[in-house]
């Protein structure tokens, strides 16, 4: 507490008794007790006033804190929704790109090879039928 040992306290008491006398010590102790009581009362009153006056600030701070917290939660939810939508669209586009690239990487047939395999009806060579020979008269 006061970092005073028992021997030091006894020494102080003996010196006070010798200096003030036995009749004055109870009055000194009573005055010291009243002073400590008044000091404690004043300290408690200051604490109470401080808490009363800062209570409004605490409520305001708590209101601001709750508002900020709710707004950050809303923003976080909005970001999550947007990011999930972006992921969905990205996956969708990625699938489309894969389909297009798969079509483009298939072995392309040249027009000539297509014509050879599947000739068009106009381009087919006419069948060679034996034509009758004309007789000259």
TrEMBL record:
Any one Gene Ontology cellular component term annotated for this protein: TAT protein transport complex
Pfam families xrefs: TatA_B_E
Primary residence: membrane
Biased composition regions of type Basic and acidic residues, renumbered to the chain: 92-121
GO BP term, example: protein transport by the Tat complex
Subcellular location field: Cell membrane; Membrane
Keyword tags: Cell membrane, Membrane, Protein transport, Translocation, Transmembrane, Transmembrane helix, Transport
PANTHER family: SEC-INDEPENDENT PROTEIN TRANSLOCASE PROTEIN TATA, CHLOROPLASTIC (PTHR33162:SF1)
Summary of the function given for this chain in its UniProt record: Part of the twin-arginine translocation (Tat) system that transports large folded proteins containing a characteristic twin-arginine motif in their signal peptide across membranes. TatA could form the protein-conducting channel of the Tat system.
Subunit record text: Forms a complex with TatC.
Name of the featured protein: Sec-independent protein translocase protein TatA
